[in-house]
Design a protein that fits this description.
Blueprint (H helix, E strand, L loop, with lengths): L10 H12 L24 E3 L8 E9 L3 H9 L7 E4 L8 H4 L4 E3 L25 E2 L20 H14 L7 E2 L2 E2 L15 E8 L4 H10 L4 E5 L2 E7 L6 E7 L5 E11 L5 H8 L24 E8 L3 H5 L13 E7 L1 H7 L4 E8 L5 H13 L6 H9 L18 H10 L1 H12 L9 E8 L8 E8 L5 E6 L4 H21 L3 E4 L46 E3 L14 H31 L1
Parallel strand pairs: 1-9, 2-3, 2-12, 3-9, 4-18, 12-20
Antiparallel strand pairs: 5-8, 6-7, 8-14, 10-11, 11-12, 13-16, 13-19, 14-15, 15-16, 17-18
Helix pairs in contact: 2-5, 2-14, 4-14, 9-11, 9-12
Length: 604
């Protein structure tokens, strides 16, 4: 799931990032970046390992869901305790491994480049095992006349009841929902901006990791079977491609099976959903649901990169309100700085947000010693799953990494160095009490995150290279448009000028923004893989309809961000879950109606 970003904004991750950038050595030593929560359950008779021969050669089910990320588990959870027999097929296990992760490998031929093996992880719980918890509804669902292929076939009003249920799934029940955001107020009031230029959007912070949070419910289920280490090879279609007859699955160790279900749901992420449709080509040569050559097209992410630097003597004026702290309510919230709708309309550009990071000057030796001492007190993850999470968390968008290497010195020497630097620590404490960064700074870096215009030439295809299962690997051709490049230039100038005014600073634009998109792009993705099975009621413009059913395939649905027809600026997970719950409701009705019809037929 990509989810969403592996949007790294949970309390611990945000705190760790703030420590790294603003140099807060006085934070609690127990705070550390959240890695994959290990998930172990007892009485797991319906959570089984495919490699152990726990699955027969042929399985019959009412519903088969591929992918145990946020979308797949949200759907499956709605079926707990029902009369339907449900199978959830997950490629990973309870912990991540490099062997499973290698199945995500592929090539990148676009500009910017995007490594398909990073930003997503194969494990029970999906990429939300690493996400930062950022939750906000998608804005900009209406069509915009300056952006082709814009607009959703469903409205915010239609999704509102499902957004409310998604808030429950994400553990933010106290969220006060508004169109395109929340009304909850952060503890520190955000800066007032010219509404014709910028606006503050409240973002809620979820602590839920779906696999760890809801795994026990599935372990104790009587009707939802979770099959781990099982990979979908192909959806086998009827002769006319109008329905799925069976799903062929395999483990990396060679175990195979076929699952026959009344309904199927692909919930494997924005890249893999398209890949699996393209791989299902034994009957339909171009892939299942691809009669109009749309599967894999319109690939989007939220491009991100450094926009420029503000030089100021008072960086805290700008950064303080946007460094996450607990809100006054029971639900954690924080503001995000975004281009206002008025600015988007005036300049005919896309949505964007920006994060401001105060960058330290010279770090005093005492502060450096304290940081290393704190790092030495924290347990260093040694297992494969944690190391994999560390590797996947490397950034290249200009934002500081949340991970630091372990200290090279032992605790006694670090303690001595820390004691000798007590004067530096006292100075840092005084600065902190004065609401300043603990290490002096006169520079604020602005990192931008942008909506991407839907572009049919930006796409996912299959390469000729094969993975360990003998399946063709994915090829990512990520392409931006002139509207994207104009948005980056315009937004950078608007953000820089307005934010510089707020702290009496001077903004300097990054050189790459003066090149009109020419040359190699310094932008990076944020692991929000979107649009490759886009939603539209017209099968000539979308892969799925408003109910997420694949056009022309009567029993196949798709869940996840791949159905998003437009990206907006928002973290996608809350919308992914809302759409999944909405789909689950429809599937329940269809399966119950079908079962009743079968009973009536049998009685005759």
């Amino acid at each position: 799931m990509a989810c969403p970003q592996l949007c790294w904004h949970t309390f611990n991750k945000r705190q760790a990032r703030r420590d790294a950038v603003t140099g807060d050595p006085l934070a609690a030593i127990t705070q550390r970046p959240r890695l994959i929560q290990k998930t172990h359950f007892q009485d797991t008779h319906l959570i089984s390992d495919f490699r152990d021969g726990a699955c027969p050669q042929h399985v019959d089910a009412d519903l088969c869901i591929f992918g145990a990320g946020a979308a797949g588990l949200a759907i499956a959870r709605e079926f707990l305790g029902t009369a339907q027999k449900v199978y959830v097929i997950e490629s990973g296990g309870m912990e991540a491994t490099e062997r499973n992760q290698s199945l995500y490998e592929g090539t990148s031929i676009g500009n910017p480049t995007l490594d398909p093996a990073t930003g997503r992880i194969r494990v029970f719980g999906g990429s939300c095992s690493l996400w930062g918890g950022g939750c906000v509804p998608v804005e900009g669902m209406d069509a915009r006349d300056w952006m082709t292929h814009s607009g959703w076939p469903v409205s915010h009003a239609e999704l509102e009841p499902y957004y409310l249920r998604a808030c429950g799934f994400c553990g933010i029940d106290g969220a006060d929902l508004a169109e395109g955001g929340f009304r909850n107020q952060p503890r520190i009031a955000p800066l007032p901006f010219d509404p014709e230029v910028l606006t503050n959007h409240t973002c809620m912070v979820s602590s839920v990791q779906p696999g760890a949070t809801y795994g026990r419910q599935f372990a104790q289920s009587s009707n939802v079977h979770v099959l781990l280490h099982a990979n979908l090879l192909e959806l086998e279609a009827s002769a006319d491609g109008g329905s799925v007859l069976a799903a062929r699955i395999s483990s990396l160790d060679g175990q195979t099976s076929r699952i026959h279900a009344r309904r199927y749901v692909l919930a494997c992420g924005g890249i893999e959903n398209a890949r699996l449709l393209l791989l299902s080509d034994s009957v339909m040569p171009n892939g299942l649901g691809n009669q109009h050559d749309l599967v894999g097209r319109y690939f989007m992410d939220h491009p991100s990169g450094k926009l420029g630097t503000i030089r100021t003597d008072t960086p805290e004026t700008l950064t303080r309100a946007y460094n996450w702290v607990p809100s006054s309510s029971d639900v954690p919230s924080h503001p995000e700085i975004c281009l206002s709708p008025q600015a988007q309309r005036k300049h005919r550009v896309l949505a964007a947000r920006v994060r401001a990071f105060a960058v330290e000057e010279t770090v005093p030796s005492g502060i450096q010693a304290l940081r290393e001492f704190r790092a030495a007190l924290k347990p260093q993850p040694q297992d494969e799953s944690a190391e994999l999470a560390r590797r996947l968390s490397t950034r290249n968008n200009g934002e500081q990494s949340i991970f630091r290497p372990p200290p090279s010195q032992g605790l006694p020497r670090l303690a001595l160095r820390t004691a000798r630097g007590s004067a530096d620590i006292v100075t840092a404490f005084i600065r902190k009490v004065s609401r300043k960064s603990t290490v002096a700074s006169t520079r604020v870096d602005l990192i931008g995150f942008f909506e991407q215009a839907p572009n049919p030439d930006s796409r996912i295809t299959l390469s000729d290279e094969l993975d360990a299962l003998g399946q063709r690997k994915v090829c990512v051709d990520w392409q931006l448009t002139e509207l994207d490049h104009r948005t980056h230039r315009t937004a950078a100038a608007l953000f820089g000028e307005e934010l510089a005014k707020s702290c009496d600073g001077v903004f300097t634009l990054e050189p790459w923004l003066e090149k009109d998109g020419a040359g190699s792009s310094p932008l990076a993705g944020t692991a929000h893989h979107l649009g490759t099975t886009r939603m539209d009621d017209d099968p000539r413009r979308g892969v799925v309809d408003r109910h997420c059913r694949v056009h022309g395939v009567d029993n196949l649905h798709i869940a996840g961000s791949s159905v998003f027809p437009a990206a907006g600026w928002a973290f996608p997970t809350l919308t992914i879950v809302a759409l999944a719950i909405r789909l689950a409701e429809r599937l329940q009705a269809e399966l119950e109606t079908g079962a009743q019809a079968e009973l009536v037929s049998e009685s005759r």
